[in-house]
Write a structure and sequence with these properties.
Alpha-Beta Plaits; Uridine Diphospho-n-acetylenolpyruvylglucosamine Reductase, domain 3; binds flavin-adenine dinucleotide; 4 domains; 7-stranded antiparallel beta sheet; Uridine Diphospho-n-acetylenolpyruvylglucosamine Reductase, domain 2
Length: 477
């Protein structure tokens, strides 16, 4: 993975840059010590590491603005960081950049139940947004599996999704407004608690912009009343392709469960060992969840089980009780961690049309055999968001490169199937060099010009999202 050569002039000025940051921030908000900086040298794409020049931990929007003004004046790149759970390397620093971490900004600022919104500082974790409103019977819908740790800011930057986004939509469908600081320290208010503002939809631009346009410091989020009840069902099959065909038929029939999750044999085994959820021993498993009042649950379940039976499932079982329902989700949401206990892996994130699931699963199997690397599959099947996990041994020379090549071929396959390079994890550095598979020069240029407007010096997270050769002249200033 290529990264730009660090700017030697910036490295030489480290002492002055740190002194300037200390001038505008509290003493404990600036980290320059090499050992302490190791905490910021990577995110969850831990195959790539590089300690930053310094890290700063501001406490509010004013401090973020003051720090950005300093970095802007000094021409120092800034990499915004939430909780560092990006699987795409979005929060990976360069040696000449300052990490701007917003973990200290996690307060709830305002809640309105009648108007169904919550305003939080953007370092607040995803799960604790629901935690702040659940006593009143509300929840925040987007539920990435990393929700215990990941920050709302990171969710906004990556337009994150999760198992239950099939029904409720991803972050962009649940985000109402942000406070965002531009690289030169200008503070913008974009959107708000109302549903649709006049003028250009800047909020749509910000959501999914991967820390390229500004630093999000506060967010207004839609909250929803909790459904009356919910029930997950396990549907086991003796082949991944048949499970894929079943998903396709459920969606085609117009039934809208709240979630349809898919796991293949290796994932089922790893997750069952981790969560003891009672998963059947089979080649492919769907977890389908329906919710609502009892009558609604029964009606939807009837439709789904009728479709499933046409595909000869080897198992069709409702969660026996609330505890089993909880463990079924614990198993699925722990899938990455559970697989990680067994093997090194690289997690991909491509999206495909649901109808092409059987074909894509077959082709992934063929590619896996061609490369001699096993691939385990776990994904949000209902919206075609695939997460093939390529298993490899990081200690075997050359295996990581082989794994990257297989990953690139699988993502190319997603694009060929009519899908796209990323469903929810973002481009980061991981898929940066594949962007030209998806976009022509004019399409890419339009995206670069949007960044030109918000960050004309290309100082915010500059080595990400776009191929380096495409951005070279802009990054050179
Ligand atoms: C075990 C595991 C499971 C996961 N499951 C899911 C899943 O189900 N669904 C899903 O979508 N993702 C998932 N992810 C990926 C990851 O959790 C999400 O991308 C998440 O939104 C990242 O949030 P973060 O706070 O950790 O952001 P970081 O990793 O810190 O940063 C991510 C990106 O956001 C930018 N950023 C951070 N803060 C700001 C800010 N204040 N302003 C502007 N930009 C900012 C960074 O520059 C970077 O580009 C998973 C990750 C792990 C490790």
């Amino acid at each position: 993975m290529d990264m730009p050569i660090p700017n030697a002039a910036i490295l030489d000025r480290k002492a002055r840059i740190v002194a300037e940051l200390r001038r505008v921030l509290p003493a404990d908000a600036v980290i320059e010590d090499g050992v302490e900086l190791r905490a910021y040298e990577c995110d969850a794409l831990s195959a790539y590491r590089c300690p930053p020049l310094a890290a700063i931990l501001p406490r509010n929007t004013a401090e973020v603005a003051a720090a950005l003004k300093v970095c802007h004046a000094e021409g120092v790149p800034v990499v915004p960081r939430g909780a560092g759970t990006s699987l795409a390397g979005g929060a990976l620093p360069t040696a000449d950049s300052v990490i701007l971490g917003i973990a200290r900004m996690n307060a709830v600022l305002e809640v309105s139940y009648p108007d169904r919104y919550i305003r939080v500082e953007a370092g607040r974790t995803n799960l604790s947004v629901t935690g702040a409103v659940e006593e009143e019977g509300f929840f925040y819908a987007p539920d990435p599996s990393s929700q215990l740790a990941c920050a709302i800011a990171g969710n906004i930057a990556m337009n994150s999704g999760g198992a239950h986004c099939l029904k409720y939509g991803v972050t962009t469908n649940n985000l109402l407004g942000v406070t965002m600081v531009l690289m030169d320290g200008t503070v913008l208010e974009i959107g708000g608690p109302w549903s649709d503002a006049a003028g250009l939809d800047l909020l749509g631009l910000v959501c999914g912009s991967e820390g390229q346009l500004g630093v999000v410091t506060e967010a207004t989020l839609r909250i929803l009343p909790k459904p009356e009840g919910a029930l997950p069902v396990l549907i086991g099959f003796d082949s991944s392709e048949v499970a894929g065909a079943c998903v396709s038929d459920i969606i085609k029939a117009g039934v809208l469960p709240v979630a349809i999750e898919f796991m293949d044999g290796p994932c089922i085994k790893a997750c069952e060992a981790f969560a003891k959820a009672g998963y059947p021993d089979c080649e492919a498993l769907l977890i389908v969840e329906v919710e609502g009042a009892e009558a609604e649950i029964r009606h939807q379940l009837g439709l789904i089980t009728d479709i499933a039976r046409r595909h000869n499932p080897v198992e069709l079982r409702e969660a026996a009780d609330a505890d089993q329902a909880k463990r079924i989700w614990l198993g699925r949401k722990s899938a990455f961690g559970a697989m990680g206990q067994i093997n090194d892996y690289m997690c991909l994130d491509g999206t495909i049309p649901v109808s092409s699931l059987p074909m894509v699963l077959r082709r992934i199997g063929e590619l896996s055999r061609d490369y001699g690397l096993d691939v385990a599959n776990v994904f949000h099947a209902g919206d075609g968001n695939m997460h093939p996990l390529i298993l490899y041994n990081a200690n075997t020379p050359g295996e990581q490169e082989k794994c990257e090549a297989l990953g690139a071929d699988i993502l190319r396959l997603c694009v060929e199937a009519g899908g796209c390079l990323t469903g929810e994890h973002g481009v980061g550095i991981e898929k940066r060099d594949l962007m030209e598979v998806q976009y022509g020069p004019a399409d890419l240029e339009a995206q670069l010009r949007v960044k030109d407007v918000f960050d004309p010096q290309w100082l915010l997270n500059p080595a990400k999202v776009f191929p380096l050769h495409v951005t070279a002249s802009r990054r050179a200033g």
